[in-house]
């Protein structure tokens, strides 16, 4: 390929004056906004760094679409007095950012006297696909009993069997535990003692929750891993075990 076709002088090897590579402004705003939303969903800090790199990114980064996707996992679950952080959380809540809804939900349900609004926020976040919100919302419904119990079992078992493999469920539980430890817990949830598993082919059929022996390990394909053994079980048994783990978590165990 000739140097001249690239805008480079044959004699000097230098780019001719007036010849420039396509800049960031040549890309459509929709594409740039998608890029910013992707960055925002991975790291709020990275989003701030990109926004500070140029005026175009700063302006596009203020769009509601970007803030819908921004992750707040880097921010501790506490109330801030700094105006810029408080403003960020307020805006994310107003546009129903899933992370913001989850934070409002978990704090409202377990720390406030009125649990209703907190449960509504968890439900909204769950509908938007927030994994931790779906996890906690499903557990709350299970322990509520009645028809809600069945809804909760379906929601949690769908996470176990479809969306989350073993290591991802453990990571979800770890993140929830970090949130719980950072809050003042005023409201616990209490489970009933009837096992949810009624599948006769499950190796734990008929066992009460207090007699469950699994240590909380997870494996894809319907297995629960014990420290000494691996055995076949159903999704409802795993719900049994997950409820026990969460209730113990709330009690600081």
TrEMBL record:
Q: Which residues form the signal peptide?
A: none
Q: A Pfam family this protein belongs to?
A: TPR_27
Cite the record's Basic residues compositional bias ranges. Answer: 12-22
Coiled-coil regions listed in the entry: none
Q: Which residue numbers delimit the F-box domain?
A: 21-70
PROSITE patterns cross-referenced by the UniProt entry: FBOX
Task: Outline the segment boundaries, as ranges, of region: Disordered.
Answer: 1-22
The record ties this protein, via SUPFAM superfamilies, to: F-box domain
> Which PANTHER family does its entry note?
F-BOX PROTEIN, OS05G0482100 PROTEIN
What is the protein's name according to its record?
F-box domain-containing protein
């Amino acid at each position: 390929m000739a140097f001249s076709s690239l805008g480079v002088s044959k004699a000097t090897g230098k780019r001719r004056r007036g010849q420039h590579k396509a800049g960031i402004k040549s890309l459509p705003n929709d594409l740039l906004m998608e890029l910013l939303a992707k960055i925002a969903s991975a790291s709020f800090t990275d989003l701030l760094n990109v926004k500070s790199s140029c005026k175009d990114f700063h302006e596009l980064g203020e769009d509601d679409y970007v803030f819908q996707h921004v992750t707040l996992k880097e921010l501790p679950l506490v109330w801030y007095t700094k105006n810029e952080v408080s403003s960020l959380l307020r805006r994310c809540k107003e546009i129903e950012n899933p992370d913001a809804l989850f934070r409002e939900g978990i704090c409202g349900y377990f720390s406030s006297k009125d649990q209703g609004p907190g449960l509504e926020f968890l439900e909204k976040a769950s509908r938007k696909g927030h994994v931790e919100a779906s996890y906690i919302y499903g557990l709350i419904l299970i322990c509520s009993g009645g028809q809600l119990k069945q809804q909760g079992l379906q929601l949690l078992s769908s996470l176990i069997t479809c969306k989350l493999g073993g290591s991802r469920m453990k990571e979800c539980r770890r993140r929830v535990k970090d949130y719980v430890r950072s809050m003042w817990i005023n409201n616990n949830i209490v489970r009933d003692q009837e096992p949810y598993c009624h599948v006769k082919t499950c190796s734990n059929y008929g066992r009460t929750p207090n007699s469950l022996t699994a240590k909380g390990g997870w494996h894809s394909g319907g297995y629960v891993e014990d420290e000494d053994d691996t055995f076949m079980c159903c999704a409802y048994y795993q719900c049994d075990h997950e409820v026990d783990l969460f209730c113990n978590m709330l009690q600081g165990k």
